[in-house]
Structures are given as structure tokens and as C-alpha cells.
Amino acid sequence: MNDDIQIDPARPEAGPMLREARERRGMSLNEAADALHLKPELIQALEEERTEVLPSRTFVRGYLRNYARLVGLDENEVLNAYQGRLPEEAPAPLVGPGVKLRRRRDLGPWLYILLAFIIAAGAFYLWGGSDNASDEAPEAAQSPAVTQPRTDSPTRVSEPVSAETSSAIEAEPQADVAADNGFETTEGETTEAGTIETEAFAASEQGPAATDAPMLATPAPEMPLPSSPVSAPAPVAEQAPQASAGAPAAAGGQLSLSIESESWVEITDGAGARRFAGLVQGPRVLTYEGPEPFSLVIGNAASAELRFDGQPVDLAPHTRGKVARLTVPQ
Amino acid sequence: MFKGIRGLFSNDLSIDLGTANTIIYSRGQGIVLHEPSVVAIRQDRDGGPKSIAAVGTDAKQMLGRTPGNIRAIRPMKDGVIADFTVTEKMLQYFIKKVHEARFFKPSPRVLICVPCGSTQVERRAIKESAAGAGAREVYLIEEPMSAAIGANMPVDEARGSMVLDIGGGTSEVAVLSLNGIVYSASVRIGGDRFDEAIINYVRRNYGILIGEATAERIKHEIGTAFPGTEVHEIEVKGRNLAQGVPRSFTLNSNEILEAMQEPLSGIVGAVKTALEQTPPELGADVADRGIVLTGGGSLLRNLDRLLMEETGLPVVVADDPLTCVARGGGRALELMDEKGMDLFTVE
């Protein structure tokens, strides 16, 4: 098109050419307009090459052809002369508003189905998976109802002697103290969190009362009972020692996992219960007791240190890439 | 199953499967085939196997000049399929031809233009014959829509555009706005009817029988739809019915105009009916800009003049009117891909 414009001066002017031919035939503007069934203004615009008032290219080319024929000029000559002056237009876009709507309507049902599925999956994960990894307070508040039948089911819970119970309780504070020592340098809050973990996993089927108990009881760990009434009604508190009594009965070793920096951790105990699954932020120690063997997945093996029954476990042989997958004891 | 794989080696095609000519537009290549819709079939003995002797231009030259064992037929009649098997074979041949020098059997996506007056059964027949010819997917588009897109008319605007597509078998007139057809009508009058009218006229007035090919030549050379200032003449030969021997005689353009009066008034009538049926706003738009003619029939001399005088509206002939439909179909295919829409498909 640019080329056409450059050649223009050498080329005959189409508009004046048409006008001259018309005048030579003694035809007025109105006569020409009548013969072509066009408005006189349109004929004038053609002669003056005012393309902005003319309709689209297809029509203008047609008008020019008809006009040229009317005044006895060669059609192609006129069209060629006019070529560069016609606006070069892109082919019609052909996208009406209805088109897009229709497309969206096609997609709609699938989008809703997908959305519903995602919501269902999310709900299942939240409610279905909550009783395993119960380190969140609001969730834990619901768990007594769920945990009640569980504590009942193993008959050995009632059997253990009270001495064992106390030993188990004594074992916990030790772990707490260890955790405390380890995190004194960092934050008080994380220590608390660590404590909750410790307690929660010492007896997996504990209720919220029990979960709360050691947190408040940290200054006096050997006395979980007195602290429990503070946070929970009495019947639940009664279960706490019972449940914690179950832990040693399962004859599980103690697993202690300290995480230095962010890592995904998943711990399943020998009974197949998922004890912990989630992203552990920052320095934190996870301690569990329960039925052996534990199977672990540690996302960032480099930042983790694992001890089982006080013995360090080397993660290197189980590590592939950054992820360590192992079962202890082997 | 392998069609999808073969599709990788095929082009998308837009086919104007016309009564007289088949035009194929290939995406990214333009018009790749333009041949008459004629097939010559050879059958050496009665009840024996049939084989294709020629398709397209070669077959057209055989029309009316074949020996007993060859039949040259036009499988399309009035814009729709008259002979299903032969149409399928013809399409197969054409599709293969535009994929020359390919190792794989072509399996293109195909968009075919159908007359807007065609019935469901006729459309299905076209769809199936294209599928039988190896098309992977078949889309159908109404001819006036495709013609308007091919003529580069502003069909997407909220403004009426009237298009008149005169083909070999049918003439379609439609008013379009906002990518949709507001009014459409199809009359079974086209180039073939002009030829027929000329044959009948010559037989009646001269007592001489001429063939279709001669009639078509007369139409191309001196045919006119509106009395012009100059009169053209042509010398043709035909068989004198009374004497039974070939005779030469001369025809002039005014006689041909007279001969074609009937089909011409049929087309004018269709346009007038369309204008009557068009909603007033759209009718005003059409009166403002005019009617666009496409299709081979619009090449008939002074047809636009005739319509202009009869309707009092401006009438323009599109650029390259013969290929408008196929080009418009190609553009529609591109749009379908770009926008992922099936706006133009009709079942």
C-alpha cells in the first residue's frame, strides 16, 4: 500500500478522471447519481476521493466499476488508479457478542462440575483427615466425640497398672524439657507448639482436654490431672490419663524428629494411623510414641535429624534427591 | 483411528461444491482447484464394473461427446447431490488432487457450502459423501453466508447486507446482519437454466438443435441481461431438425436476452421478494449501500444493470465473484479455529 502511495504522482487521478469523463458526456452529478442509483453526495465523494465517507471497500470498488462503465472508461484503469486511495481494510472480524456467550455456555456445566468436585475433595480432606493430624485447636475441639469409641476399643487400656501410667507421664515431661532446651534460643511459642505435638503423639487417641493439659502443665509436668479441669469438663479429663496409659502398652519406641528449616513431613505409625502430615515451618521437634514401625517421609532430609529411642538414625541411605523415605525401626 | 494422524499431513479445505464448478480453497494456499463438477464413467459391458474415466475439466470436454461405454455425468443438480456415489468419487478425486505428492492418504477437515434452501436429507447426503471421500471432519455452511464473507462484506456489523449468489443450479439471496442470516431464499434458477433457455429458444425459433456446451459458449460470449447500446453477434453450428444436417447460423445478443427473459425474471422476482420480506431497518441499510452479486452467474453481462433498474437500488459485483463462496468458507474455517466456535456449521 505504501508503494501505491509513492507511485501516486505518476498515476492518473481516479476521481478527476471520472469527473472529466462525466463532464465530457455532458452529464450532471445528479444525472450520474440517478443512473447509478446512488446519492449525489456519494458520487461527489467518489470524485473527490474522500474515502472516509464511503462505505467498505467491496462496495466502493463496485460503485467505481459501475461509474466507469457509465461514463465509458475502462473499469480496470479506474480501479487501478483508485487502488492506493482505498483504505486497506482487514477482513471482517466476524466476532459478534453472541459467539463468545455461546462458547461460555458450552464450557459452563463442566466448570461447575469441576468446582463442585474440588470443593468436595477439599471438604473430605479437612473433615476426613482431621482426626489424624490434630495439632489445630479448633479441630481438636471436635475430636472427643470421635475419639471416645476409640479409647474404648482396645481392652488393654484398662489393664495397665498405674505405675506404668506414671512412668509414661514422666517420660513426656522429659521430652518436653528436651524440646524446651532445644528451642530456648528461638521462640517461646514454637516451644509450646512442640509441646503440644509431644503430648498429642505420646497418646495418639487423646482428646482436647489432654492436648490442652500439658501445655498448661509444663511448669509441673508430673501433674496432668489438676490442670485438666481448667480447660475441659471432668469426664473428658478422666480419659486423658487412660489414653496416655495406652501408649506404653502399644510397646512403641520413641521417635524424635527435629526439623531445622521448612520441610514436608509425613509420619505413619505401625497401626497405619497417619500421625502427622504437613509442612513444618522452621525449627521444631516432633516426638511420637506408638506402635512400631513408623514410616516417614521427610521432604527436606538435609534439614532433619531423626532419633529413635534416643539413637540417631542416619537418613542418608534412605534419601533420594532431597526426599527421605524410611521405616524405623527397620 | 489413523484419521487423526493422517490429518497432520492434510490441509483444511473449504469446498464450494457447486452444480457447475467445484472450487477448493486450501487454508494458507488460496484457491487450489477450480474444475467443472463433471465425472466421466466407463462401463465396458452391461453389468460390468464401473470405473472413473475422467473427472473435472477432462470429463467436461467429454460432455455430450461420449461413446457408448462412457457416460459423462454431472452428479450435482440444483445445488444438491443427484448421484451420491459419483459425488463421493468426485470429491475423493479432488481432495486427493489438492494433496498431490503426499505419501499418506489425505484426511482433511472440510467445510462445504450448501444452498440455504436445501433440506436436511440433502445436507446429510453432502456431509456423508464428504466423509466417505476421506474427510476427517465435515462442517457445513450456508452459501450466502460464505459468499458474503468471501466478498468481504461487513456481515459482523449491525447493518443489513444483501447478497445475491447466482450459481450453476441455484440462486441464493440473503440479508445478513450480525453474523446471522435474517432472511434467505433459494430459487432453483442458475447458469444451467440460462443454457437451457438458450437451447429452447434456438430450437423454437431456428429449428436447430444445439448442445449444452454450445449454449454455454453463446451465453459467455454474447449473453446479456440488459439491452445495451451495442449488439454482439456469434456464429454457431447445430443440427437442423427438419433437414437433419448440421447448419451454421448467427445469433445476436438481443435474441439471447429475449431467450433468457424467463430465468432472469425469476431471479429478479426472488430479489424483490427478499426486499419485501426484509425488516425495514435492514432494508434501509441495503438501499443505502446496495446489493452485492457473487457467483458465476453474476458474470453475465449487465445483470447488475438489470437488477439496478428493476429494484432501483445500487448493485455491485464482488471482486472475483466465482470464488467468493470458497474463499468465504476458507475464512470461516480460519475463524472457527481462531475462536474455537462452530458459528457457521449448520446441521
Structure explained in plain terms:
The complex is a heterodimer of chains A (330) and B (347). Chain A is of the alpha+beta class and 330 residues long. Chain A contains 14 helices and 9 strands. In chain A, strands 3-2-5-9-8 form a 5-stranded antiparallel β-sheet, with no helix packed on it. In chain A, strand 6 and strand 7 (311-313) form a beta hairpin. Chain A is rod-shaped and about 115 Å long. Residues 1-9, 92-105 and 133-250 of chain A have low confidence and may be disordered. Chain B has 347 residues and is an alpha+beta fold. In chain B, 38% of the residues lie in helices and 27% in strands. Chain B has helices spanning 3-7, 57-62, 84-98, 120-132, 143-150, 191-206, 212-222, 253-259, 261-277, 280-289, 303-311, 324-339, and strands at residues 13-17, 21-26, 30-36, 39-43, 50-55, 70-73, 76-77, 80-81, 109-114, 137-142, 161-166, 171-177, 180-187, 208-209, 233-240, 246-252, 291-294, 315-317. In chain B, a hairpin with a 5-residue loop joins strand 15 (233-240) and strand 16 (246-252). The longest helix of chain B is centred in the C-terminal third of the chain and has 17 residues, at 261-277. The relative contact order of chain B is 0.15. The interface between A and B is medium-sized, with 24 and 32 residues.
Main beta sheet of chain A: 5 strands, antiparallel
Number of helices of chain A: 14
* Biggest sheet details of chain B: 5 strands, mixed
What Rg of chain B is obtained from the alpha carbons, in whole angstroms?
Answer: 21 Å
Largest interface: A-B, 24 and 32 residues
Nutshell version of this structure?
The complex is a heterodimer of chains A (about 325) and B (about 350). Helices cover about 55% and strands about 15% of the residues of chain A.
